[in-house]
């Protein structure tokens, strides 16, 4: 095995050189391109929690042993889904073996590439990886009908459920978000409940932004259990939801602060989800300020009164935190 850093890809990538001698594995250029896109997945950590190891049989995803937390496993799951979509678009499906080494809890998955003809959906999600992110603001147009069913279906195929709280449940969720934002403004010890060091909570990479309109909605991604397998599934489902939203012309922001406090996670599970699921991520979703994109009916839409701006590359580990003010 030799170290091989892909262009722009943080994290360790170890590659067995002899794999390039066989046609049964993606060539170096294809694998590098796929890993470049995989690391655009969201993560709360300043450094990536994932480690890639490539041999003649599989791409193996490992968790950084210094990041043995729920959030890190979710980030790894999102990166794995990004990688699977990227490889699929390049002509390689993946057979995934999750947690293949019981004696090694850091070995999250092995992905065996097999030749594949990409589907239209895979190509669309692949394109969404580079377009996701951009303007911090949301537009004023209401969300398109049918979006919730689509993102829910994508999440369900990966083992997670999308919840859209309404009425009193939404009020409880908003209160938890605002309380988490207040807690964030107060210095806390590094060994606080939730496991993330104070400096990570102060400047996480996943987006936290002020709400500016009342046309957005809050979604909760939940799983039936709260173990590492569920966290990995949640990460894959989170990636699928974010990319699907981007593909139909919607913007998303992940609100990290409530999930960093175990007491608030319990509050959300009990009073918002009715103990049906364990909350793993909170997503704010709405129209972007300006895009020419397709809504759920395939109609081109642009938010009126705004100026179109290019959708830039999402840069993990670089976005500042802001307080989570959510409209009631």
UniProtKB/TrEMBL annotation:
It comes from the Bacteria. Coiled coil: none annotated. GO terms for molecular function: oxidoreductase activity. PANTHER family: NAD(P)H NITROREDUCTASE RV3131-RELATED, NADPH NITROREDUCTASE. This is NAD(P)H nitroreductase. It comes from Nocardia panacis.
């Amino acid at each position: 095995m030799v170290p091989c850093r892909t262009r722009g890809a943080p994290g360790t990538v170890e590659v067995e050189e002899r794999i390039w001698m066989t046609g049964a594995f993606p060539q170096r250029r294809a694998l590098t391109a796929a890993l470049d896109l995989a690391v655009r997945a969201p993560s709360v950590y300043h450094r990536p929690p994932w480690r890639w190891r490539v041999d003649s049989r599989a791409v193996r995803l490992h968790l950084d042993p210094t990041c043995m937390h729920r959030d890190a496993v979710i980030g790894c799951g999102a990166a794995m889904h990004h990688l699977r979509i990227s490889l699929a678009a390049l002509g390689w499906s993946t057979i995934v073996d999750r947690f293949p080494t019981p004696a090694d809890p850091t070995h999250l998955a092995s992905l065996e590439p097999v030749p594949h003809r990409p589907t239209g959906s895979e190509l669309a999600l692949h394109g969404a990886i580079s377009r996701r992110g951009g303007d911090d603001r949301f537009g004023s147009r209401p969300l398109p009908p049918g979006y919730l069913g689509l993102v829910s279906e994508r999440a369900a195929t990966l083992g997670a459920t999308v919840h859209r709280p309404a009425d009193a449940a939404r009020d409880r969720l908003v209160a938890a978000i605002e309380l988490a934002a207040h807690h964030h403004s107060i210095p806390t010890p590094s060994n606080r409940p939730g496991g993330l060091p104070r400096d990570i909570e102060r400047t996480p990479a996943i987006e936290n932004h002020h709400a500016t309109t009342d046309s957005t909605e809050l979604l909760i991604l939940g799983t039936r259990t709260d173990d590492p397998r569920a966290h990995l599934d949640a990460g894959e489902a989170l990636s699928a939801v974010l990319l699907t939203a981007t593909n139909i012309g919607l913007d998303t922001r992940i609100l990290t602060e409530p999930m960093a406090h175990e007491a608030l996670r319990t509050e959300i599970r009990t009073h918002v989800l009715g103990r049906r699921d364990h909350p793993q991520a909170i997503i704010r979703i709405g129209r972007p300020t300006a895009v020419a994109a397709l809504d759920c009916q395939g109609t081109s839409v642009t938010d009126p009164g705004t100026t179109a701006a290019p959708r830039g590359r999402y840069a993990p580990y670089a976005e500042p935190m802001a307080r989570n003010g959510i409209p009631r």
